[in-house]
Amino acid sequence: MERRLKKRREFLRVAQEGIYGSAATLVVQLMLADSDSSPASIGVGFTASRRVGGAVRRNRAKRRLREAVRRLIPLLDLPMCDIVVIAKSATVDAPFDYLLRDLKYAITKCLKEISSL
Hints:
Oligomer: single chain
Structural class: alpha/beta
Order of helices and strands: EHEEEHEHH
Number of helices: 4
Radius of gyration: 13 Å
Mean pLDDT: 92
Low-confidence stretches: none
CATH architecture: 2-Layer Sandwich
Shape: globular
Number of strands: 5
Largest sheet: 5 strands, mixed
CATH class: Alpha Beta
CATH topology: Ribosomal Protein S5, domain 2
């Protein structure tokens, strides 16, 4: 079960307290959820800045990222966490297989860094 991050303070909290992993087409910010403060689900938020392009390109990038997360999250054994996925300009034009590969790479990179702390 995943929930959407929608409020600015949720995005800022993940950015300030979380770990980030970068790939060619996207950036992932991941923060393990506190068991007492967060609901028992994975929170996911998406963002695309103007650097990605105009409104049409930004919305396309976010739609592609939402679909990639929808397909990938059930396959990964993730702990309760909040994830912010940030689009890069390559997100819009990259083949969907690359998005899936990069998303999996960035999430596992974040999890490895968290486990090493």
